[in-house]
Amino acid sequence: MSYIDGFLIAVPNANKEKFIAHAGEFDPIFMELGAIRVIECWGDDVPDGQVTDFRRAVKATDEETVVFSWIEWPDKATRDVGMKKMMEDPRMDAANPMPFDGKRMIFGGFAPVVDLKK
Fold first, then answer.
1. Per the confidence metrics, is the pTM higher than 0.85?
2. N or C: more exposed end of the chain, with fewer CB within 10 A?
3. Tens-place pLDDT, residues 44-62
4. What are the sequence ranges of the domains in the chain?
5. Which of 68, 42, 41, 45 has the alpha carbon at shortest distance from 57?
6. Given this structure, which CATH class describes domain 3-65+76-110?
7. Cα–Cα separations (whole angstroms), residue 92 to 25, 27, 60
8. How far is it, in rounded angstroms, from Cα 43 to Cα 72?
């Protein structure tokens, strides 16, 4: 079964096009390194919760939108090798800054336990 890396970030609304361009530059590297799918989703219907919610999780301000993204890998072994290579890749140079505050990014790896398809 596949393996999923999930990400939640707050992106300044003014940086939406910069974010899309950034994803367009870096997401293909994940594909090159073995990912089978990369999805970037701009928040559209992200309600405030009573106890917690996506916005609070990343400390999003009124001037930011929550972005939910994931990378699908064929398996965890491919992901582990791919992510290691990604972190060592010179294209990940800090001279190309992220259009969001990476310190507030939430991420993690997940092993699917249910996978329904049509």
1. yes
2. C
3. 999 999 999 999 999 999 9
4. 3-65+76-110
5. 68
6. alpha beta
7. 10, 11, 25
8. 20
